Amino acid sequence: MTVLSAEQAAVVAAASLLDTLDAVAATPASRHVVALTGDLDAATRRVELRRSLERFTVVGQRGDALGERLAAAHTDAGPGPVLQVGMDTPQVSAALLAEAAARLAEPRVDAVLGPAHDGGWWGLGVRTPELARALVEVPMSRADTGDRTLAALRALGARVELLDPLGDVDTPADAAAVAALVPGSRFASAVADVGLLVGPIVVAGEVHR
C-alpha cells in the first residue's frame, strides 16, 4: 500500500485546492466565496494560494463538526442560491459547475447534490441557506453520507436533483485515478512529483502544511 508523508500529502492537497479555485473563479456567479481554515502562512505553495485567493471573498469556517461548518459556509456566502464544492475533486471544471448552477436555477428544483463514488458527495447547491442546515445532523466521511444528505434534504421538503457522480481524493489510489482525468493540471503534476503515477504525464479549501 502506498503511503504519503505529511509533506507529500500537503503538495498534493495544495495543487488540488489551486486547481479547484481556478475552476470556481472561472464559473459565472454573482460572487465567489472561500470558507477557509488553517494557517495560510504555513501552507505549502502559500504564495500561489494567496494570489489565487485574491479573486475570492474569504470567510473563516465556523462550527465544530464538519456538517456545522458546511452549513455555516452557506449562510456566510450570502443570500440566494449557493453551490458549494470541496477541494478534493480537482477534476471539476467551470463548465461542470455552471451546469450544476443552471440545474439549481430550474423551476421546481430546491437543491442539487453531486454524489461521490465513495458514498459521500462532491457538490451541494441549495436555494436558501436554511436548507443547508440539513447537513448539521448528517454524519460526514461515511459510505452513507450522500444518501443521508439526500434524505435530510427531502425531509425538509426540498425537491432535489442529482448531479453526475465524481470520484474524490481520499487515498493515494484516488489521487492517481483523478490525476489521470486531468493531464496537464497542477494536480496531475503534483501526483507525479510524489511518485504516484507510473509513466509520463502531459504537463480547483483547507490549508495543509
From TrEMBL:
InterPro entries membership:
Nucleotide-diphossugar_trans, Trfase_1_rSAM/seldom-assoc
Q: Which PANTHER family match?
A: GLYCOSYLTRANSFERASE, SLL1095 PROTEIN
What is the official name of this protein in its record? DUF2064 domain-containing protein
What is the protein's species of origin?
Answer: Rhodococcus antarcticus
